[in-house]
Fold this sequence. Notes:
Blueprint: H1 16-22, H2 42-97, H3 103-123, H4 127-146
Helix pairs in contact: 2-3, 2-4, 3-4
Amino acid sequence: MSGRADSDTDPEITGPEAAAAQDTGPDAAQAEPGDERGEPDAELDDAEEPDDEPDDAEEPDDADESVEGARRARWTAAGTGAALTLAGLAAALLRLTRSVPGLVPAAYAGGAAVCAGAAVLGARGRTRRALWLLIAGVMVMALGDQSD
């Protein structure tokens, strides 16, 4: 320590002349041209700005991912609804060939109709409602199976 009171003061706090007077140590030989005056380089300010740009650049990527996620949810809801509709109709037809109460094939057909509605809603983008309709349709089919 040199004994001066302002030897550790940041160059931004002290004036340009005082900062230049402090740069007499071993670090002064390694200082860049903008550091001699005690003013920050314009290059350093420019170097900080690209850190902000990736945040802005990520927004379109996030938007693309959310669009892709929504598309995937629509296809999943529509596909699941169609598959459960076909399964319910097949079960209803199989139950019609046996001697079972009429409630059983009706429950399968009703559940298949609800799942078909869910497939339509899912294709239109109403994926939450489609999920609840899929659950309700499967529950109706399960209740029909329990009455067998």
